[in-house]
Amino acid sequence: MGFIIKNEMPAIVQQYAMYLRNIKGLSAKTVENYCMDLRTFFRFLKHDRGLAPKSAPLDEINVQDIDLEFIRSITTNDIFEFMNYVADERSNMSSTRQRKSSSLKSFFGYLTSHERLLDENPTENLTPPKSKKALPHFLSLEQSIELLNAVEGPDQERDRCMLTLFLNCGMRLSELVGINISDVIRNNNTLRILGKGNKERIVYLNQACLDAIDSYLAVRPKDGVIDRNALFLSSRKQRISPKTVQFIVKKYLAKIGLDGPGYSVHKLRHTAATLMYRYGDVDIRVLQDILGHENLGTTEIYTHTSDRQMEAAVNANPLANMSPPKPQKQKKNGLSET
Questions:
Q1: Can you give the pTM of this predicted structure?
Q2: Are 66 and 15 in contact (CB under 8 A)?
Q3: Residue 89 DSSP SS3
Q4: Is there a smaller number of Cβ atoms within 10 Å at the N or the C end of the chain?
Q5: Residues annotated as catalytic (active site), given as ranges
Q6: Over the stretch 29-54, which tens digit does the pLDDT of each residue have?
């Protein structure tokens, strides 16, 4: 359990965190985000009810004394006032408010349905705010090729292999870092990936991925390796960390002039999905399986089209060349010319 959960959360939230981690199988980062949302909520309530010094900044209010009696006093109106507060006072974006809404609904659902500690769920009528369906940043095909060609240096085989897997398989950062050598299945050219919620999926490796893996394995350190199972190793010969991978990717993105906001490791996942959909005529449900999305709606954001595709679609209409007949010239007496 993380430092924040152990040292800053009330006992009932710590129990909830263990439930999310061990029973629901959520990642440590997701559990921490949920708990921090609850901490903000409890701080708001203590401040609003005068249970903390008025001069105390909200972010410094201690919530370890929150108990079941306090939680039973929370009403639906408290929930709505908190959601208004994070929108108006903290200027949270719709996506952040959506997560806070999910955090509250999950926590009170746990207390009501799973633990039977509450008779009524105050979040029952809470509707998550709608988030804008913004199109994700992604690299063009030309930029993707340029990124791969920008790799150089003593670790170029490793770095190119990581970029190749990102751009071809659309995996998440945590998924790439967690790959073991045994996850590469040679007899059918597949890769076993452990995704969100410890859900396993299999993706097929194309020739570029197989070649990149072989090139890296040929130079991967063999002596003094701390984690022999890990596919990707750091300079310290241990499993490479997410921060190191982020640094490497940003370094090469900057090298090709894509160092502005919006470009990151996760954008390579967006790029892989977009390239597969645009150039591979991939069915949306196949793409869903490759990316490991639980809901099809999450995958549908990649079905955005380029101007060129829209132009081609219109021109492909069988009526595209049906022009109206030319008007006949009229004589002065109203009779048409022959």
A1: 0.54
A2: no
A3: coil
A4: C
A5: 172, 196, 266, 269, 293, 302
A6: 889 999 999 999 999 999 999 998 87
